[in-house]
Each structure stands twice: as structure tokens, then as C-alpha cells.
Amino acid sequence: LPDSFDGTSPAALLEVIYKGSDTYFSRSLLEFMPRAELNLLRDDKDTAFFPFRNGVVKVGKDKVTMLSYGELGLHVWRNQVVQFNIDIDEAFDDKHVEFMDFLMRISSDDGNRTMYVTHLIGYCLHKWKDPTRPYALILAEETEKEKEGGGTGKGIFFKAISKLLNVVFVDGKNFKLDKSFAFQRINLDTQLVVIEDCRKNVDFEGFYSNITEGVTVEKKNKDELYIGYQDAPKFGFTTNYTIQLNGNHAKRRAKVIEFSNFFNPKKTPLDYFGHALFDGWDDDEWNRFYNLMFRFVQMYLTDGIPEAYSSETLRRKNVKLTWGEEFCDYFDDIERGKWHGFTDEYTAFLKVADYERKDYSNKRFRAALEAASDAYGLTFEIRKNRQDMNRKEFMVV
Q: Over the stretch 314-339, which tens digit does the pLDDT of each residue have?
């Protein structure tokens, strides 16, 4: 800066601005200033864009190309620019990418599970929001013993996505949806919100409107801001427990990724790789990683999301969470393909579980039978046996 301007020093000029800031920057004065219309870079239905230091990567179903910022001619949020000079390489071998190795391990080296996971990463990275696909990702665990959960690599999963997106991480243990300023860290440039380490019995239904409509952001001493569906961030959750997904509404909105126990507190990713993932990577490894993520986006754009993988353990955890461990044990022992007297079975269940009728009504018992059959991919049938005085019977097959 010059020593003075028209006889006024920079320090003296700043002092004048500070003293008159209430006038110079008042809302009434700013209302008369011309509005600047910004044409922001946005993904569309068939294309995803990723701004890097040396240009913008355009990902389509069939091709990944590089555009200069001048060629693009659009505005980009500064903190969405990845600070890396990318080199497009569609011919790389994904077997030589550490993050791909990680994904295979959390998927138990199961090809179908790995494909499901990689397509969901592509879904997260594609910022265009399809109104027919308002999904939230839930990272759960394979183990049925929830106290033994943790250390499976769920944090690494979303950390990888944060290398390409502007992600806000929220402490799920202390998060309350009805609390004032719950989403105060969300801004217009936020692309994904991750609620980490959710508490047991978290109210997933409470997030429905945020996932399917938009997000209302309330910040201290500022006007409330509503971000509509297309501009609102997507949502992700991590938990050592099972998030209750009752009814078709919840099931339609949740995409659950079940982490194997390959990584655990006694065998961490640090032990397996010899270093913390992402730390100490050279430019070649970073370049392979980014190109791998572009490939996942292409897979999603081409195929959508494959049918979800759900293990016997996860299905059992969901049944147990809603209908109780005693019912879960009872359901495991029901003889399949045989008609059972409803009243007899209900009475036997109450006796084994040490319940009174007021503790577990016959209406709840029937609902549990239907829900558990659906969760396990079985058929629940009920009838009146006319040859036995219209006695009500059920069968699971």
C-alpha cells in the first residue's frame, strides 16, 4: 500500500471506515447496490464436475475430460476447489490404489458388496439431486454385538469423499435435531453433511424433510436461511448401532452400507497399510485415488445403485431393535412351511419371553411376525381354519 493517499495514511483511512461502518455497510444502503447474478458451476443429470487447481474435471458416462476455467465460463466456490493438479488417467489399474484395497476389505472381498459400495460413493459425489432418489447413506457394522462395534473404517469412508466435496462433520453423540442452531455450520457451499457416531435409537424419521425437501439453517444473530432441495447437501450417518428403519418411507430413503469386521480395534487400517490412509501419499497415489473416484461416478451415472446387500446379521439387528431380542430368538426357531395356531404360539411366546399380555399385545405379535418375515425375505401367511372352528393360523415360508 502507498504511504498516503491524498494526504491520508492507510491507518487513518481504516479508522474512518471503522467508525462509519454502521452507515457504510447498513442494510438500507446495500439494498440500493446493483445485484450481481452468479452463474455457479452445477452438476446436471448426466454430468458431474470437480474443480481442481489446474482446471475442472468433467465426468460423463462415457468420458472424463479436463476443462479450463476460462473455457468453462462459470463461477466456482473457492473452498470447493481441490488443491491438487490433476492428471486424467482412465487407463489406470484400480488394483494398485490403496483406497480400493480398503473398500474390498470392508466388503469382505465380496464382488457384489464392493460394487454396491462403489456405486454409492458415485451417488455421493454426483451433486445433482434426483427428486426420485432422495437417499441418505448409513454406515453400519456387520457384528451383532453392538458393544464390540467401532474401528471398522467408517470414518475413513467419508473422509475419502471429503477429499472431493465440501463436507460438514457433526458429532452425532451430542447432536439434537430439535436444538436451536443444529445446522448452523451448513453453508450454501456445503455438499454433504455427515452425522458421525449416532446415538442408539437415533430418530431417523426426524431427518426426512432434510433428506427429501431441503434444509433450514439457523445461525446466531442472523436471519433464517432455507436451502431448497437441489442446492441442499446430501446426508450421511455412521453408527455402531442399528438405525431403526420402520416402514417403507424409511427404507426408501436409507442406503445402508454394512462394514465387515476385517478392520477392528485390534487390527486397524493403520496396522494393515502401515500408515494412516491419505497420509504420506505421493502425487501418483493421489492421482490414482482421484481417478478412481471419477470412475465410481461414471459407474453410478451408467448403472444407478445396485440392489442393496444385507447380511443375516444386519437383518437380525433390525428385527431385534424394533421387536425385541426375545421375539428375535423366538422367530429364529419357528418351523418354516407349517401352519401354527396363532393363539397357541402367542401364548407360548409370552411364556418363553416372560411377558404379560400388557407388555406384548397380540396385535404387536402379529406385526412383529409380518415385519420379521419381510426383513428375512420370507412370506407371512395367515388364515382361518374352517375345519377347526375358524381358528386363526399363520405360516412363515
A: 677 778 878 888 999 999 999 999 99
Crossing angle of the two packed helices 362-375 and 342-353, in degrees rounded to 10:
90
> What does the block give as the cell for 7?
494526504
Which set of grid coordinates corresponds to residue 109?
Answer: 472381498
How many other CB atoms are found less than 10 A from the CB of residue 197?
A: 18
Distance separating alpha carbons of residues 51 and 290, to the nearest angstrom? 12
Q: Over 60: is that where the pLDDT of 1 sits? A: no
Q: How confident is the model at residue 2 (pLDDT cuts 50, 70, 90)?
A: low
In the 3-class helix/strand/coil scheme, how is the chain assigned residue by residue? Answer: CCCCECCECHHHHHHHHHHCHHHHCCHHHHCCCCCCCCCECCCECCEEEEEECCEEEEECCCCEEEECHHHHCCECCHHHCECCCCCCCCCCCHHHCHHHHHHHHHCCCCHHHHHHHHHHHHHHHCCCCCCCCCCEEEEEECCCCHHHCCCCCHHHHHHHHCCCCCEEEEECCCCCCCCCCCCCCCCCCCCEEEEECCCCCCCHHHHHHHHHCCEEECCCCCCCEEECCCCCCEEEEECCCCCCCCHHHHHHHEEEEEECCCCECCECHHHHHCCCCCCCCCHHHHHHHHHHHHHHHHHHHHHCCCCCCCCHHHHHHHHHHHHCHHHHHHHHCCCCCCCEEHHHHHHHHHHHHCCCCCCCCHHHHHHHHHHHHHHCCCCEEEEEEHHHCCEEEEEEC
CA atoms within 13 A on the CB side of 92: 23
d(CA 168, CA 235): 10
Name the CA radius of gyration of the chain, rounded: 27
> 326 is written with which cell numbers?
426375545
Query: Helix 362-375 and helix 312-323: axis angle, to 10°?
Result: 160
Q: State pLDDT tens for residues 247-258.
A: 666 677 889 898
